[in-house]
Amino acid sequence: MVDYAFLQAQVYVAIVAEEGSFSKAARRLRVSQPIVTNRIAALEKTLGIRIFERTTRRLELTAAGRLFLPEIQLSLRHAERGWDLARYSARVATRPICIGYSPYISSDLLPTLYELNVSELEAKRVETVGFPEPLPELVSSNTPDLIDQVLRGQLQVGLGIQPIHDPSLWVQPVAREGFCVCVPKNHGFAQRASIPARDLDGQPLYWVSRKLHSSFYDQTVEYIHGTGAQPALRETASTIHAIDTVARGVGLALLPSGAARLSRSGVVFKPIADRFLQIETAIFSRRDLLRGNLQDFVLFLAARLQSLRLIRQ
Fold this sequence. Notes:
The chain has 313 residues and is an alpha/beta fold.
């Protein structure tokens, strides 16, 4: 039998840890402070450990609390995901498909997404009851956020940047492109046909924030360092900001090769010569929801994107 008081006490522990005080946690929970204090004290008594060290000046987690808290937070995230999925299943037949995409995916994919109409797929089906609305909803976010939203059921489909390793997801590559370097026109690299990654050694190099996708960032940096190059990496908010910075003569910028289509006076774009330094876009969806109409749609979209033949060896 579920002990709801025990579950509630775990929520209180998580919020107290986030807020750093019982009084702030009580205000957030909209209960009195003694209720929070007593529930956590009862939990500590049940577990036979102290979760928080209490002093008149500060509140800190004990060693046991530091072990206990991450597991509580993980279980709460799973519970929230369960509620999201339940809400998703209740509305899936009454709302359009929602597709999320990273702003860093191959730009060649975007026209297909914008022009996508489910009516073409619907016309091929004998039974169309419960089929999604013809025009999908599109939202943009970074890949880790898209993964979380797909796992929660807030998005049915994601288009993000590899690597995507979650075993709960069905993942299919749909596009691959190389990198280019944005260079000031008066820079020594400006006369070259291409630039090997090793030649970036010591160069001020503007690139995306690691927060965009830490695994992708680390994988790319590891490759560059593996060539012996140690560029001075600097974060930039967007491709346009990076190009504007380079146009002022402040360093170089590492960008997807599609950025070379952009026009800006004072800069040129040179392809990275290393063929294994690439950005791979993948479509993904929850494995356990990939059935029926959603499966039909995801496979339809994957085939449509792969037909663009943007994966090149």
